[in-house]
Design goal:
This protein is of the alpha/beta class. It contains 14 helices and 22 strands. The strands form 6 sheets. A 7-stranded mixed beta sheet has the order 12-13-14-11-10-16-17, sandwiched between helices. It has a 6-stranded mixed beta sheet with strand order 7-6-5-8-9-20, with helices on both faces. The chain is globular and about 70 Å long.
């Protein structure tokens, strides 16, 4: 398997992929080690994960350089990701004892009723390339904390980062047979689905997630899916600082080259603020520096996957053929690397691909609406349900709008945001189950009720 630098199209390294035999050996080792790891105290496991977080901080420059080399995100955004992962780990460590400890539900003379949270066993984590540290720690950290062993398959586009994660976990004190990495592309993932894991946790596209869910169903084990989105945003008529809203939401749409499941992917603007917002938005987008992800000040680097360029071209062509206007971008940058210019389309309608299909790239459609009713109608018009955002001076108004949108997260005067304290979950095509928050800690456990008489 060749690891290619998306900025230069050069081969970084070639790696040998796992096969069914090597995966089975790793699975058997995880199975044997799981009871020993679970028998350690929670505090012992917490200390090991805390050490891992310290190592992320100590080696952040080397880790960021590796991440940038294989996924193409600007170096500062790679640093931001690693620091963000450490912040999530900090919350999990601070709350693990509270939410994984035994819960006494009833205590009266002669009777005690207790919930114990037992580990699932050996879990399979098929992870993503767009934020390998962030989406990774959402799964393997709470899995390890709660006493599971983990087979971690990084995306084939972020394998070097996956190997770094494995190395640092083991350097921190995670035993060799408690965390194993599966190397390879879709064939490796398919092989993992034929094995008898005690839970599957996937981050990626709806199409692949649906396939995994169907394969895991017959196993009668937990299967959680963190999938994509077509996340809408509404700018209401009472926004006081339209320019600031435009600048902030442009970042929400294009950060990490738009390669985020919770990136803003559709924007609806009240007609009162439409012109001012559009002017400020386009001005901001045109101010960004595109180019080498290792150069100072670069905001837009290359796309991670060459194949996504065709998706973006198709969305632009479809929109223009249906009457949209192109205000900036819409083209591939000439030269080496998978570069696509940040693209802003207006006069869009909800029947265009750019407003219906996940873009996962630096492209946005902006539509004018006359009122909240029309905005809600447009925002609801999607098969996805990850996040939705409303910018307005009135919190009650925002919450009323958001309550009508079937999405896992709602944002008032912010967007493209994830908190370790809140559940990260999708509705409809955006997935099933939750990571993060206390629900994300307990997602890797099996509750057992104890009826104790004495």
């Amino acid at each position: 398997m060749q690891i290619i630098n998306p900025a230069t199209e050069e081969i970084i390294i070639s790696l040998e992929e796992d096969n069914s035999s090597t995966l089975q050996l790793k699975f058997d080792a995880l199975k044997e080690a799981q009871p020993l790891w679970a028998n350690k105290t929670l505090q012992e496991r917490i200390l090991v994960i805390a050490k891992f977080s310290d190592l992320l901080e100590a080696e952040i420059e080397r880790l960021a350089a590796v991440l940038t080399s294989e996924v193409g995100k600007p170096l500062q955004q790679s640093r931001n990701e690693i620091n963000g992962a450490r912040a999530r780990i900090k919350w999990m460590l601070a709350n693990a004892e509270k939410y994984l400890a035994d819960e006494v539900m009833v205590e009266e003379p002669g009777l005690k009723e207790v919930i114990k949270y037992e580990p699932l066993g050996v879990v399979c984590n098929i992870s993503a390339w767009n934020y390998p540290y962030l989406v990774g720690v959402n799964v393997f950290i709470p899995a390890l904390l709660s006493g599971n062993t983990v087979m971690y398959k990084p995306s084939e586009y972020a394998t070097l980062t996956g190997l770094k994660i494995e190395k640092l976990l083991k350097k921190a004190g995670v035993p060799d047979d408690v965390f194993q990495i599966a190397i390879g592309a879709k064939e490796t993932g398919a092989a993992l689905l034929e094995m008898n894991f005690d839970g599957y946790f996937f981050t990626g596209s709806y199409k692949t997630g649906k396939f995994i869910y169907e394969k895991a169903a017959s196993k009668m084990v937990p299967c959680q899916l963190e999938l994509g989105g077509k996340d809408p945003l509404y700018i209401a008529d009472d926004v006081a600082d339209v320019v600031a809203a435009a600048v902030g939401t442009a970042d929400g749409a294009f950060y990490n080259n738009g390669q985020s499941c919770c990136s803003v992917e559709r924007i609806y603007v009240h007609e009162k603020n439409y012109d001012d917002y559009l002017n400020a938005f386009v001005t901001e987008v045109k101010s960004w520096k595109s180019g080498s992800p290792t150069a100072d000040g670069t905001y837009i680097g290359p796309l991670t996957r060459k194949e996504q360029i065709a998706v973006l071209k198709k969305q632009v062509e479809d929109a223009l053929n249906k009457g949209a206007k192109l205000l900036t971008g819409g083209k591939v940058l000439v030269g080496k690397g998978y570069y696509f210019k940040p693209t802003v389309l207006t006069d869009v309608t909800n029947d265009m691909l750019v407003m219906q299909e996940e873009s996962f790239g630096p492209i946005i459609g902006i539509m004018k609406v006359k009122d909240d009713i029309e905005a809600v109608k447009m925002m609801k018009d999607t098969d996805y349900g990850l996040t939705a955002s409303v910018y307005t001076a009135n919190q009650e108004r925002a919450e009323k709008i958001l309550s009508q949108i079937d999405a896992g997260s709602g944002y008032w005067n912010c967007c493209d945001r994830v908190s370790a304290a809140l559940p990260w979950s999708g509705r409809k095509y955006s997935g099933i189950g939750a990571t993060l928050s206390h629900q994300g800690l307990r997602a890797f456990t099996k509750p057992k009720g104890y009826h104790l008489r004495g």
